[in-house]
Amino acid sequence: MIPLLLVTLWGCGTADADATANQASRTPPPARAVRVEVVQLESANAKLELDLPGEVSGQRDAVLAAANGGFVERVTVDEGQVVRKGDSLARVDSEIYWAQQQQAEAQLDQAKTELSRLEKLGDLASDAQLSGARTQVRVAEANVSLARARMRRATIRAPFGGVVASVSVEEGEVAGPGSPVARVVQLDPAVVTLSVSDRDVVSLVQGMPVTVTTAAQSGQLEGVVARVSPAADLRTRAFPVEVEVPNPDGALLPGMIARVRADRALTDAAMVIPQDWLVTRRSERGVFVTSGDIAEWRDVTLGDVIHDQVVVTSGLSEGDRVVITGHRDLVDGDPLIVSREGRCCAAGRPSFEE
Fold first, then answer.
1. Poorest-confidence range of 14-28, 163-177, 298-312, 317-331?
2. N or C of the chain: less Cβ packing under 10 Å?
3. Which helix (H) or strand (E) holds 3?
4. Three-class SS state of 14
């Protein structure tokens, strides 16, 4: 009996040990604490600051050509000369066009005289004769209009006030139809053209004040954003932006490189954090904050983007301790070991005590 009892007790002890082992295997191990860095949030003024290079050009820039071509009779301007709207720049075949105009006007007078003579004949003039005479008058009038248009185009005039940037012909040359004659540029105001990324262009608005500097000048010039393109350049994927700068003394010249600085206050006393502190899930975005030594998920609502930072409009408050390293591997409720703690955000970056 004793051996049998020992076997029974041994079997029961083995069964209890197996049950305990199975229960232990089903119990999840305690989570390991994650070593992180945190910052305590402070409110700040959200401010956009852009510093971009651009190229200077005139507000208006026209390359004027000889529409009909011909003999260059006279060039009346020099490079660098200031001209007003309507000033003559050159004459091309004006003598021939003047002769054609005189001929067309004489033919018109002749056609009108003939029509008047037939009308005075009354019934002696047939309807066909009168109709033909009236047609000749209309043809002659059209020829006069054509001759006068050619005559006007024989003199190349400045379409606006500005500076003659270049003269492409000399007196005595024969210019072909459409050949460039002169280039006129309006320098006041000057235009600085920028190429702005999609991240920054949304912060620029028409009429926004900016400052402009160039290597040729020590001071700053004041300008405004005149135009923000609604579509990106298909080659560069950047958005063209034009800045107008008063240029009464002509200090800004086409082709110069300028730097444009734009400062714009977005919100006061806002929570502004770097974008890489955010954690994106399938249907939500947020950050991890500390609740004691435990990670706590916090949904946030985002506002304006400022370079690599973003304004948090709701979800965070001053004094919250946000996890900024190790946050992408966290799960809500994970225990934390804070290895370093700082404050946010001076100049867009956290500061840590040494």
1. 14-28
2. C
3. helix 2-26
4. helix
